[in-house]
Amino acid sequence: MKLAVVGAGSTYTPELVSGLSRVEVDELWLHDIDPERLEVVGGLAARMLGRAGYGGALELTGELDRAVEGADFVLIQIRVGGQAARFRDETVPLACGCIGQETTGAGGFAKAMRTVPVVLEIADRVRARAAPGAWIVDFTNPVGIVTRALLDAGHRAVGLCNVAIGFQRTFARWLEVEPARVIVDQVGLNHLTWVRAVRLDGEDVLLDLVAEHGDELGEQAAVPRQLVEELGAVPSYYLRYFYAHDRKLAEQLGDSPRAARVAEIEAELLELYRDPALTEKPALLEQRGGAFYSEAAVGLVSSLLHGDGAVHEVDMRNDGTLAGLADDDVVEVPARVSGDRIEPLEQAPLAPELLGLVQHVAAYERLTAQAAVTGEIEKARKALLTHPLIGQYDITNELLERLLEGVRV
Q: Which of 132, 256, 298, 326 has its CA at a distance of 20 to 30 angstroms from the CA of residue 21?
């Protein structure tokens, strides 16, 4: 089995490599357009795999066609424009009075416009060169929009996020059980989800968890415990930008952007990775984000390969799973993975207070995916007008002019 990682110069890659011993990978190909980063990250990957007793082949390449040739799985984890682009995504919206976040709102829109065309070019090479039936697993943000674009173009793709597995690990720790016994029923859109049930050996224990840990769950989403109790669901971290909009905007205006700290962490990580004595992922990587990415990605690949029927949180076509959304919308839901089949768990209708917001953002995602592919400025403007964190014509015009600077449209 050949697995290719596109964007392997990412500091996330050691997180992924740390879990590869659980999947029978005969060939691991790491690809990146930055030769220096690829050499540094690939060097650590080689030492980690050597320590783990990996018996397969490890190849580093800057040639995309070589990386994906004959691949059974292609993981895409790119950041078009690097951290400099992220900094702009997080600061330009603030100057316009909007939330500055790299995947939510105006920042996510700008990232999608840059990223979707590049990912589709990569996917075209996968279709031409990879093994028949190869899977594309997308970890590139904004995952929902990128996955939608891939599926719209007819690619065999599934999106992956680490929010749900983070919840699973937290709940398992509180329940003092192995994570495999816990299924997190988290539903919605990528970075717009709520946990509506937590099943321990099939029994829903969410109300017990809220009763015992409601303060912690509210703090994680930056909302009061009362809201968690009234919703009867646990909002993901990203809902803070909607439920506590004014407070989060004020905090962002008074603080340095997250992008600045991430750039510092990346520089420190790359320096650590250069140490020839380092043979495991450093603790600093936990501050980078992407916790449990390894478990999420490796677990999904393993289920697609072996058809073990495990449940994974994925981004996929709605196809009637969530009532009130179009069949071709891309939703984030728990699904049972049995080889080539990914079957979403049956879902009750979303409550009105959840459904309204999801429909709003789903419309924005549809328009953004179309704008990223066609380059239509009118479509892009409609996308920003539709997003509940923006929605004002004058602001939209200013954002478009500043965010699309240097983007292919």
A: 132
20: Cα separation from own chain's centroid: 19
State pLDDT tens for residues 335-377: 999 878 999 999 999 999 999 999 999 999 999 999 999 999 9
Please answer whether residues 9 and 37 qualify as being in contact, where contact means their C-beta atoms are separated by less than 8 angstroms: yes
SS (H, E, C) 81-147: CHHHHHHHHHHHHHHCCCCCCCCCCHHHHHHHHHHHHHHHHHHHHHHHHCCCCCEEEECCCCHHHHH
Determine the residue type at 179: P
Cα separation, 138 vs 88, in Å, equals 23
Number of other CB atoms surrounding residue 81 within 10 Å = 18
Task: Give the CA distances from residue 232 to residues 151, 163, 214, 228, in Å, rounded to whole numbers and listed in that order.
Answer: 32, 19, 11, 6
* Contact in structure between 187 and 331 (CB atoms under 8 Å): yes
Domains of the chain, CATH where assigned = 2-160 (3.40.50.720)
User: What is the per-residue pLDDT across 260-289, written as a single tens digit (0 to 9) for each?
Assistant: 999 999 999 999 999 999 999 888 888 776
Q: Which of 54, 237, 238, 364 is catalytic?
A: 238
Please indicate whether residue 364 is annotated as part of the active site: no
Report whether 203 contacts 214 (CB < 8 A). Answer: no
Reply yes or no on whether the pLDDT at 22 is more than 60.
yes
